[in-house]
């Protein structure tokens, strides 16, 4: 659901995007006019026109994605097995897996 926040005392619903099934959204981030959603992989929703939002790209993973961040044209996805996946999202319609980094955190 997308709201106009120009007047925080009078929120106005301006659009929404509906999945075919009830989604489990683990985290999300807005970057430019795209909504990046972690649903155990990355789904990219074009929200430039909130009344006509649509999924334009995706990159699923067999690994559990705990969290992610978008920085410039890159998405960094933290997995449950202590790996960071790096995606190039310069073209949101075709995110490209560039590589991964294994992180060994001391406990």
The gyration radius over C-alpha positions equals 15 Å
> Strand share of the residues?
over 45%
Uncertain regions: pLDDT < 50 for 5+ in a row? Answer: none
The SSE order reads EEEEEEEEEE
**Global structural class:** mainly beta
Continuous helix count: 0
- The span between the termini is 39 Å
Overall shape:
elongated
The helix content, as a percent range, equals under 10%
Strand arrangement, major sheet: 3-4-5-6
Question: Key terms for this structure?
Answer:
single chain, 107 residues, mainly beta, four-stranded antiparallel beta sheet
Question: What's a quick, concise take on this entry?
Answer:
The protein has 107 residues and is an all-beta fold.
Report on this model:
With 107 residues, this protein is mainly beta. The protein is built from no helices and ten strands. The protein has strands at residues 2-4, 12-15, 27-31, 34-38, 41-46, 54-60, 65-71, 74-79, 83-88, 96-102. The strands form three sheets. The chain has a four-stranded antiparallel β-sheet with strand order 3-4-5-6, with no helix packed on it. Strands 7-8-9-10 form a four-stranded antiparallel β-sheet, with no helix packed on it. A hairpin with a 7-residue loop joins strand 1 and strand 2. The radius of gyration is 15 Å and the shape is elongated. The N and C termini lie far apart (39 Å). The relative contact order is 0.16. The mean pLDDT is 87.
What is this structure's SSE topology?
Layout: E1 2-4, E2 12-15, E3 27-31, E4 34-38, E5 41-46, E6 54-60, E7 65-71, E8 74-79, E9 83-88, E10 96-102
Antiparallel strand pairs: 1-2, 3-4, 4-5, 5-6, 7-8, 8-9, 9-10
């Amino acid at each position: 659901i997308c709201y106009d926040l120009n007047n925080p005392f009078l929120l106005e619903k301006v659009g929404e995007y509906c999945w075919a099934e009830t989604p489990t959204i683990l985290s999300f981030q807005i970057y430019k006019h795209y909504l990046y959603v972690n649903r155990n992989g990355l789904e990219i929703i074009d929200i430039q026109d909130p009344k006509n939002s649509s999924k334009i790209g995706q990159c699923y993973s067999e690994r559990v994605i705990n969290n992610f961040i978008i920085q410039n044209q890159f998405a960094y996805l933290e997995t449950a097995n202590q790996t960071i996946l790096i995606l190039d999202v310069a073209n949101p319609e075709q995110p490209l897996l560039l590589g991964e980094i294994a992180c060994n955190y001391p406990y």
